[in-house]
Amino acid sequence: MLEKHYGKLTKGCESCFKGEKLVLFITGICPRDCPYCPLSEERKNRDTVFVNETETTSIQDLIDEVKTSGAKGAGITGGDPLARLARTIQYIKTLKQHFGKEFHIHLYTSLELLDEEKIKKLEEAGLDELRVHPDIFDKTLWHKIELLKETKMETCIEIPAIPKTEKQLFELIQFAKDKVNAFNLNELELAPLHSEEFKKNKWKTDKDSVTIEGSEKTAKNILKKARAWKVRIHFCSARFKDEVQFKGRLKNYAKNIALPCDKITEYGTISHAVIFLDKEKTPNEKKLKELLKSLKEKFPKEFFHLDKEKSRILCSIKIIRTLARTIPNCAIVEEYPTKDKTEIYFEWIS
Ligand code: SF4
Predict the structure, then answer these.
(1) Distance 349 CA to ligand 1 centre (A)
(2) pTM
(3) C-alpha distances in angstroms, 262 versus 27, 67, 130, 306?
(4) Which parts of the chain register pLDDT below 50?
């Protein structure tokens, strides 16, 4: 099951489906220590900001990334964004000021730091959707879910579908169904920093995968029952996140940055040919410009582009085989359309 839902999806989920959300990781600080916390060592408990995959505290980088990625909204995550409330508010306001009211922002938090005043501040800053992550094994803070009844923001409870936790999940849904607008269940995945806890809890991975055996089954059981309760509920599988959301995000990026010499693949990556000065990829802008000039004299100009950052000439795949007969150091490359242009395929053809 890739994805399944009953009732309308939240607006945050709708644009995530289309890969239109930028991921703003606002801090790695979090008061909780969930045994399934997915954060990596690079992020966990570090007060650092990532805009999509790039670590940066520059507001300008954030604005540029929205433009390049073609995002129509953002999901603010962490850690717990409420652990750095002032920063979170500043980023929400900036995004709304630059991209307008329609730029949809949702935010994830646990219940630990949530209170009436913070909800009010987030709403005033322009946040559209608040998603909370209660502890299903400890009800001490569940009373805070009551606070969500008062806000105009869309509200959602988002929790992992831990195998064999139907009893706890039913209880939480029953408790919260008249207090929040919707529920999201995520497929549980192996957390890099918690392999010992996973072993202890007997949460085993599915064959050839990082998803946890039984998580999807638990989600299915919940969905069946919750349907009768008429709650809006959605299950998001790990495969769906990877195949649909990530691919959608790449495609949007690619559409925004593709040059006439680029080809966007069905996976949202960019494929083109490249010409270097030598096999060592030596940077020499003057020589590259000379080569570019001579190529543009013989072939249509739009087939070429100087990529100063990577000291190479980008070239349309359509003519590279012809060029490679006479020009050395030609290659075919497929890469992510992201800022770092990570290569996933490289082949010298001359
Ligand atoms: S609330 Fe989220 S970030 Fe914090 S420990 Fe739990 S899973 Fe990790």
Answers:
(1) 47
(2) 0.83
(3) 35, 19, 39, 13
(4) none
